[in-house]
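Sample pair:
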Amino acid sequence: MEMTLRPLIRASDEVRLAAALLGGQRTLGTSPATPLDLVELSRRPVKASAFDRFALWLGMPGRALAEALGISTTTLHRRGAARRLAPRESEKLVRTARVLARAILAFGDTELARGWLSDESPALGGRKPVDLLDTSTGVELLLTELGRIEYGVYA
């Protein structure tokens, strides 16, 4: 029974933590509680302040985060007064917040999670996890690797 409930509890924790990393209700205008809520959040223009806040959490300059996500810094600056990300950019930001949330839960510590993102990983062919954030396939690979770490299965 424990094995069945743990992933359900973790999914909820992951969603709430990902939302908090993006600025929570104040920034997002909603309080996602389920993975489906994250899907809905990903489909709409998120405030650029969520991007700025997330960059602060990562301890990464906005330019570096934009590059890691495959978002043009020129495009971000061009948003100007609208200060909203396009849905595609929102989706990239939300899925990356989900990766960091999962890493924090897996390692039990924000600093360890940040370190994991920026360090080369033998399990990822010597690549840094941050370098895989720009594609959905890369994010899937990272979430799979974090699952292995959570359950003590090291590749």
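Residues 2-150 form one domain.
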